[in-house]
Amino acid sequence: VQARDELFGIASHELRTPLAGLLLTLQAARAAAPNEGAVRRLQLAERQAMRINAMIEELLDVSRLSSGRRLELEREDVDLALLTRQIVARFEPEIDASKASVTVHATDAVVGHWDRSRLDQVVTNLLSNALKYGRGRPVEITVERVRPELARFAVRDYGVGIAPRDRGL
């Protein structure tokens, strides 16, 4: 386990440098793209590179947690409803490919003092799973303020679900 965690840490750090260069190159190419089709393809490549970056961050988190270190939170004021809409927009190619519809139910801003990156990871993972296992059925995301200090975020899909024996309940 210790060797795995060390590998995660080293690999994560080593992968970040070339990925940062790739993202900069994609952004520059998109800015100089000759037509809208090229822009869309470069945006897709950029989104995929950002997803790889998020996975690398998750590996780093696993490494930190497994070695007994705390996760450092970078708290800031974040509108969870807006962030959710941005993530759904980022997933448009996957949504189209899955033939699913995704609806975000959020009538108001839901601002809290949270770690944007961690929230992005959670929303991304939940939406990704809903699309993957939803089998093209609708996905509904609800973001709401329950009390001044409490927000609720829920993802509902109509897919196969998890068998009761596999839920760990």
What is the strand and helix layout of this fold?
Layout: H1 2-31, H2 36-66, E1 75-79, H3 80-90, H4 92-98, E2 102-105, E3 111-115, H5 116-133, E4 139-147, E5 150-157
Parallel strand pairs: 2-4
Antiparallel strand pairs: 1-3, 4-5
Helix pairs in contact: 1-2, 3-5
What does this structure look like?
This protein has about 170 residues and is α+β, with helices and mostly antiparallel strands. Helix content is about 55%, strand content about 20%. The chain has helices at about 1-30, 35-65, 80-90, 90-100, 115-135; strands at about 75-80, 100-105, 110-115, 140-145, 150-155. The strands form two sheets. A three-stranded mixed β-sheet has the order 2-4-5, covered by helices on one side. It has a two-stranded antiparallel sheet with strand order 1-3. Strand 4 (about 140-145) and strand 5 form a beta hairpin.
Give me the Rg, rounded.
Answer: 18 Å
Give me the strand/helix succession: HHEHHEEHEE
Number of strands: 5
* Low-confidence spans: none
Q: Which strands sit side by side, in order, in the main sheet?
A: 2-4-5
Number of helices: 5
Approximate shape: globular
- Largest sheet geometry: 3 strands, mixed
The computed structural class is alpha+beta
Overall helicity? 55-70%
Strand proportion, as a percent range, falls in: 15-25%
Distance separating the two termini: 26 Å
Average pLDDT across residues?
A: 86
From the structure above, extract its key features:
169 residues, alpha+beta, three-stranded mixed β-sheet, two-stranded antiparallel ribbon
